[in-house]
Here is the input.
Amino acid sequence: MRERIGGLEQLARYVVQYKLTSAGRSLIVLGLIAGMTGYTLELPIFYAFCALFALGFIALVVNAIVRPRLNITGSFPQLACAGQPVTGWISIANTGRRPAFEVDATLFPRDRALRVTRSNGALDYLGPNAHTSIPVTILPQRRGLYRLPPVRAFTTFPFSICRSGRIAPLGGPLLVAPYFHPLTNIDVP
Here is the structure.
């Protein structure tokens, strides 16, 4: 029983943190509010609940059907300073016969000491057999040795409600040294 609860917890974390975008999470909240306030067919808000459910379901089905075939490689520097952003490059290649729409790549770190501060934003179009590189900037908060999470390249097509894509591990760990101020000159009497 305990293993079953742990599996459900991991599934819920995957859906909330990765599968749904912020627009998808907002759609779920609006759907729950509409569902709780209009639980009978007599209230017009029930139709809003049905429309939100249909929008989410259509986005989920289309997203699964047009899931692109992507090859991912990424590299980050092996050394960084605490409090200083570090940028890595993620290369994405579309190996499918269909174009990929709204393609993006990022890291989803579990450790709170690593934050993704900037991703370049989604590419509107990545043609068949095309490739591109996307910069991703992370900000390590504290010093230490961190294992970087795998890179996720995904599409949010259509409606930017949910994600589907591929996952690839990064190289070695990231060593974060304490922040230091470089000395420009020394005044020795």
User: Anything to note?
Assistant: The helical segments are 2-19, 22-37, 45-65. The radius of gyration is 21 Å.
